[in-house]
Amino acid sequence: MLSIGSMWYHDSDIGSLVAAALLTSATYLVSLFTSILFYRIFFHQLTKFGFNGPLHMRTSKLWHVWHCRKSQNHLFLDDLNKKYGDFVRTGPSELTVYHPDFFKVTDGPTTQCIKSEWYDLLWPESSLLTTRDRAVHDARRRDWKVGFSPQALVYHSNKILKHLDILGDVIDDDIFAGKPSQMRDLFYWLGFDVMSDFVFSKSFGMLRTQKWHYMIIRLQRALSLLGPVSPAPWLIQIAFRAAPRVCQIGDWFEMAAWTHEQINARLETGSEKQDKPDLVHYLLEQKESVPTHERILRMRGDSLNAIVAGSEPVPIVLLGLFSELAQRPEYIKGIYQELQDVDIKDSIALAKMPNLNAAIQEALRMYPVLPTGGSRKSGKNGVTIGGVFIPPDTTLIGPRFTIQRREDCFEHAKEFIPERWTTRKELVRNAAAYNPWGTAHHSCIARVMATDMLRATTARLIYHYHFRLAPGDTGRCVLEDMKDQLAPNPGHLKLCFEAR
């Protein structure tokens, strides 16, 4: 830069001024970044408290982004745990904590921890999930609770059964054609069809057409961004503002625009009475008869949140569960036997089936819906986890993928053993490590609905069909090919079905 300035204004006063300005700027920037690096490496409060981790990760989160370039943050953090222990410094002011007490300490009813800056991702729009202020979050959660009341869940249960009938028709078509079923497609189509019906009373119709909806294709492309850049969410904010229509970023805005259109259409018709009210109906009924601009922004964010966050967990857990069951037919037999004397359309009856629920619990443990997500920030007084004090204003990561597979918490932790929740409870050494749906006011508000859907789908398929792994499919690709994109993006699973 200095040589360019000198060449352009050779032997002139302006050239001398430019050269001096560039030299001063370069000196300032070098001094600034050098002092930042020295502070982060040697003088930061996490250094003073003795927290270890890769030296280069103390300097910048960009190193973490590099390690996650293949979207396998869950495996990277798992390796760090093996090397550095339960408290690992993974950023300038960030700790990844693998201690089983993490969840009850950071999300318990008396916690002073708050959601981290990661949750500002959608700003200026927000949703229940991304709201960081606890008082505002609690108020918005009360609005949502109406949509998840027992009466509302009865309406939703009937919608689930309708979509399960279509799923059965698709599997019957595969049986007739003599081909294996692509379970990854089927379970994702089911999840998104059900949630769009629940939120807008408008299904994507993917199961019926057996094709991916163009908006869901865009959404999944957009979510692929979160794999590498989720450790440094400010990169996404920069991209949103610098290139809002480029590649996967444009896909995200297209999906957001689609949800905005659905909300605007509903605002025009108002909260007309519905035979089976959807989530937007309940949100429209809350408080203001004429929603304010701020409230419309919240509803847009909430609807997008419901479609994205609500559709992902069920397919993920179902893929993990059915890959494990197909490798262990004895569990299929046990579940089938206990379903003989119950109505498989009765959610209350299914909730009492020990083998069915144990298998689902074990799948939730081994295939968490948030492998590494859900970061928190310690309060002004710091926080103590497992007897270790963590200073104030520290970002905290608690990777469920590793914590729920700890051998000191679950005997034979990497094995699928549903009996640990029923007849062999000694295999659960520390239940605090099991946290599939969150804790207290940060728990998943749709967990009852999601669990009902897991039970209904599993019961329906086991009751009506024999199934096995397709030739050449080991069932291990679901986990081995999984990508961590905030929610997991599991690998493929092919099953051969046969009507009972």
Notes on the protein architecture:
This protein is α+β, with helices and mostly antiparallel strands. The protein contains 23 helices and twelve strands. The strands form four sheets. It has a five-stranded mixed beta sheet. A hairpin with a 2-residue loop joins strand 6 (383-385) and strand 7. It starts with a helix and ends with a strand.
The portion of residues forming beta strands comes to 5-15%
The major β-sheet equals: 5 strands, mixed
For the largest beta sheet, what order do the strands appear in spatially? 1-2-8-5-3
Helix content: 40-55%
Number of strands: 12
Shape call = globular
* Rg over C-alpha atoms, rounded to the nearest angstrom: 25 Å
How far is the N terminus from the C terminus?
A: 76 Å
Structural class determined from secondary elements:
alpha+beta
Give the averaged pLDDT, no decimals: 90
H/I helix tally: 23
| Poorly predicted segments | none
Descriptive tags:
23 helices, globular, 3-stranded antiparallel sheet, 500 residues, single chain, alpha+beta
Helix/strand layout:
Layout: H1 2-8, H2 13-43, H3 45-48, H4 62-67, H5 73-84, E1 87-91, E2 94-97, H6 102-107, E3 114-115, H7 134-145, H8 150-177, E4 181-182, H9 183-200, H10 206-209, H11 214-223, H12 226-229, H13 234-242, H14 247-269, H15 279-285, H16 293-311, H17 313-327, H18 329-338, H19 347-350, H20 354-366, E5 376-377, E6 383-385, E7 388-390, E8 395-397, H21 400-403, H22 447-464, E9 465-469, H23 477-480, E10 483-485, E11 487-489, E12 494-499
Parallel strand pairs: 2-8
Antiparallel strand pairs: 1-2, 3-5, 4-12, 5-8, 6-7, 9-12, 10-11
Helix pairs in contact: 1-2, 8-9, 8-22, 9-16, 9-17, 11-14, 14-16, 17-20, 17-22, 18-20
